[in-house]
Amino acid sequence: MRIVLSNIGTFGDINPLIAIALELKQRGHHPVMAVPALYKPKIAPLGLEFHPVRPDIDPEDKLQAEMIYDVRKGTERGLREFLFPALRQTYDDLIHAATTPVRADLMLLGELNYAGPLVAEMTGIPWASYILAPLSFFSAYDPPVLPMYPRLARADRAVPGMGRAIRRLARLVSRKWPQPIYDLRRELGLLRGSNPLFDAKHSPDLVLALFSSVLGQEQPDWPANTRITGFCFYDSDAGNAALPPHLERFLATGPAPLVFTLGSAAVLAAGRFYEYGARAAERLGMRAVLLIGPDPRNRPRHALPDSICVAEYAPYSALFSRASAIIHQGGVGTTAQCLRAGKPMLIMPYSHDQPDNARRMRRLKVARVLQKRYFTSLRVAKKLRGLLEKPLYARRAEQIARRMRGENGVATACDALEELVRRKSGESQTR
Question: What one-character DSSP code corresponds to residue 54?
Fold first, then answer.
């Protein structure tokens, strides 16, 4: 099968696609990665066919990162000022990837590729969709934390009907955002269709929830044909999963450190996260690893002791299992790696799904949460002391990790994709 896998976003959005693509290739299929050009140097060495899809992402654009990760307006501005102005370009790039040199047998589309369902409708190519976190379902039975209205989340269990109210509020606030999608549909001769932000992004045939059941359970109002697969892990750097040599030496010469990281995107809007983190580790007398990304301005301004190691990047799968605790932004990819490693967390959420993921981790009793505006060295040290001195957090984290060992998200997702193609082929033959 020729299968086009496409989304637009951060490494957290793309890495699960890479994991699935590599498994599909191993099974003898022909996966095609249709993602922003930024990712070509990371994907091409893996022997996967690559097609660039706009909009282009500038990994050094800190202003764009700060805009998208703004708690109040980040989601709206990311859609209306970044994704939707390039919607026609996304459509053109994806339809080329799906039909050149030959027509694809299937597409797997992430929710941020809003042109994807239009391409499927115009070409008739079967498609599956995937989501990475429960927030994306906006369930009335399992209501999410809305970043712009976090206080509503405190009432969702106490007030009857609050879940339905939160879902209606999300639709009301965003009702004007998808107008560019409706405009493109009209240009293509398509009917207006259902709401692209909440409904049309889900395939009617197969929705892959690429997360563990420990993060979210299936709800009555989820789309039909949804399958929870488990997390799909991939974090190599163009196939290299080794730790930087200096970091390996550091880990081998002392007790398990704290690890401070902001993933691949929030790290561009780090503020003083690493400076406060380093000072908190010094207050506690603990070793620490700071994954500061490519921007040298993220390095703390004060002289660091030998007990703190700084690195641009390290594969989480190789690092987290050797940590005492992980302090991070709550992105679902980072959260998944923490769960797999069986380590407690301190989460400082930014926007999008991160506040919702943070609350789920707190409810699982594997994490404490500290809001960004309160993130200072003194408060971080206090939160970490409570996290590390209570055995409950480490014990619960280990229990969750054991539960997840029975999941194989990549294999389950690929099985479902193969089953979908077989079903669609059978339907076409009976017509």
Answer: S
